[in-house]
Each structure stands twice: as structure tokens, then as C-alpha cells.
Amino acid sequence: MMKTQKRARLIYNPSSGQEIMKKNVADVLDILESYGFEASAFQTTIEKHSARNEAERAAKAGFDLIIAAGGDGTINEVVSGIAPLKKRPKMAIIPTGTTNDFARALKIPRGNPIEAARIIGKNQTIQSDIGRAYGDKYFINIAAAGTMTELTYSVPSQLKTIFGYLAYLAKGVELLPRVQAVPVKIKHDNGVFEGDVSMIFAAITNSVGGFETIAPDAKLDDGLFTLLLVKTANLFDIVGLIRMVLQGGKHMNDKNIEYIKTSKIEIEPQTDKRMMINLDGEYGGDAPILLENLKNHIEFYANVDEISDSALVDTQELELEEIAQKFSHEVEELSEHE
Fold first, then answer.
1. How far apart are CA 242 and CA 254, in angstroms?
2. CATH code for the structural domain at 6-123
3. Residue intervals in the chain for CATH 3.40.50.10330
4. What is the fold of 138-295+317-337?
5. Is 282 part of the annotated catalytic residue set?
6. Which residues on adjacent β-strands are paired with residue 290?
């Protein structure tokens, strides 16, 4: 009996990253064919959940591999289409967005669809954790809450496109004085936290907004979130924390930070004020909320050799550090004039 050929479905966002993917679809399909796949492509539309619906359809149709090409938003949608299913195909990523946090964690070349597609040929995979919120929403990088994260919603989408999750840093000088600490109750694997926080941050990957030092020891496959609670709303303290992040993750031991490893997080606001939840950089709903880590839920093609080599320096990360250093300097100047 003849062995049936493996099938791959490329789901790509045509407008992501200056339409770079649009120009490379034929070449990427050729590469997939050379690796033994029968390959086809789907271009996402402006219809709501276009990528998610196609991912679910392709998975149910028995495709062996689904490739998400676009920014973190497209990847999130494709994951959301596959994650609820019992039988899930393998996934690969061709990052063409701006921050590409998940691709950065998998060490996939960014902004170069051909090189990204070639990672599949290395045949190295990782069983990655996925976050689930409210029982039916999924995230691959972060879930965040608190007034500090709500500032991202005031940022024009143009800025968000340029800076990704760090968007609010660009407007931070104007917005940070509005940061407040609010009372919360947070249940986690090791107990309960009750107190005031300005930011709640649950990370799956070690890359957030392009920085790999916010949750430096986060692992993609350990079944645990890295939960960071910022317990201050003081401008000087926050600037100090940003500095420590830039100094290689020294914030982890600061008195203003709770740093917890946990597989489940239950967030209950202890106030009538609305608490919005940010999932992968977009508004995802309001607290109260239960976040669950689905351990090793989806198998991704990854550049496993490089994941283990933490000595590699990322040029884009250096640029982002420059932006943040400038930001921290501007905030200090603002504080001195108050």
C-alpha cells in the first residue's frame, strides 16, 4: 500500500510586514514541496477570525502541518483554531510582523520568509505550552492586567505596530503618572497573593515586546507561567524596575516584584473598578479570570540548536533597548520637573 503524502497548509496574512509574505508565497510552497509535503496556501481576509477558522478547517481536514505566516496576531489566531481540537497537527511559523515574540522564542529568522521556511527542513520540534483564558481563549506569549497594561489601549495602533508590546513606552512619559496600584486577590499553585498591584503579567515565553530579560527564565515547555506582579505605582520605582530589566533581569529580586512560577492563575479584583485583560497584546476580556497553562499542547518546528545557545545577541533587541533607555531618561526628566 502506498504511503499517503503529508499535507501542509500555509495560512498567511497578506498585509503583514510590508506585504513581504505576498511576494514569497510561491517560493515557500516550493520549499515545503522539497521537504516532501503536498503544499497549498490560504490568504487571510478582513473577515473576523479568518485565520482561526481556516486553521480549524485544515486541522479537521487532516493536514499534517499548518504554517502561520504573519505577526503575533495571526499566529495567535491559528493557534486558537487548533488548540481546542483533540487531534492537532504540527505547526510552523513564518514571522513577518514587528515584535514576533513567539518566533523570537523559537529562534525563527524574522522578516525572511525563505529562511524561516527552511527551519522546517531541520526537522527539529518543541512541544510548546499554550495559555488558556476563560476556558475558550488562547494565548502564546502573555496575559497581562492592571493599570500599567491598560495604558496600551490608549496608544494609537500606528505606534503599536512599530513597537509591539512596548508601544506604551513611546507614550509612557505622558501616561505613566496615571499608573495606579489596585487591590487584587491572586490564587496560584503556591498559595494566594493579596495586595495592591499596578501590573499583573503571566508569560509563557522569555520574549516580551522584543525583550528577553523581562521573564528571563521562562521556558516554552515546562507547563508553568512566569507570573510577575508589580507592587508599586511610584514613578521612580517603575523607572528603577525598567532599568533593572535592561540590566539583564535584575528586577526579579526587587522588593516591588513578586516572581512566581505556576501552572494556574486566578485573578479576582478586590474593587468595583473594571480590570481589563490583555492577551498577546490585544484586549481579551475582563477579570475575574482563570488562566491555565496547557503543557506541551502544540508541537512547533523550532530552531532548537539556537534555543539552547543563549549567548546569541539579537540586533533588534539592542535597538529596542536603546528606545527604552531613552524612555527611562525622559521619565526621569519629567519626574524632576514635578
1. 11
2. 3.40.50.10330
3. 6-123
4. Tumour Suppressor Smad4 (2.60.200)
5. yes
6. 266
Task: Write down the catalytic residue from 258, 266, 282, 292.
Answer: 282
Length of the chain, in residues: 338
pLDDT digits (tens, 9 = 90+) for 45-77: 999 999 999 999 999 999 999 999 998 889 999
d(Cα 145, Cα 254) in Å, to the nearest integer?
Answer: 20
Q: Do residues 72 and 102 lie in contact, with contact meaning Cβ atoms separated by under 8 Å?
A: yes
Residue 93 backbone dihedrals phi, psi, to 5 degrees: -130, 135
Q: Distance (Å, rounded) from C-alpha 134 to C-alpha 289?
A: 6
pLDDT band at 311 (very low <50, low <70, confident <90, very high): very low
Q: What is the pLDDT of residues 90-129, one digit of tens each?
A: 999 999 977 688 898 899 998 899 999 999 999 999 999 9
Q: What is the pLDDT of residue 142?
A: 87
Residues 270-285 as b or e (16 or more Cβ within 10 Å = b): eeeeebbbbbbbeebe
Distance from C-alpha of 306 to C-alpha of 327, rounded to nearest angstrom: 31
- For the record, the C-alpha cell of 307 comes out as 534555543
Distances, alpha carbon 97 to alpha carbons 49, 55, 100, in Å: 18, 19, 6
To the nearest whole number, what is the mean pLDDT of the chain? 83
Q: Is the pLDDT of residue 9 over 90?
A: yes
How many C-beta atoms lie closer than 10 Å to residue 129's C-beta?
Answer: 23
Q: Is 77 exposed, middle or buried (0-12, 13-18, 19+ CB in 10 A)?
A: buried
Residue 168 clears pLDDT 50, i.e. is over it: no
What three-state secondary structure class fits 36? coil
Position with higher pLDDT, 220 vs 189: 189
pLDDT of residue 68: 97
Distance CA 244, CA 232 (A): 15
Q: In this structure, are strands 282-286 and 182-188 parallel, antiparallel, or unpaired?
A: unpaired
pLDDT for the residue numbered 273? 87
Coil/strand/helix, residue 4: coil
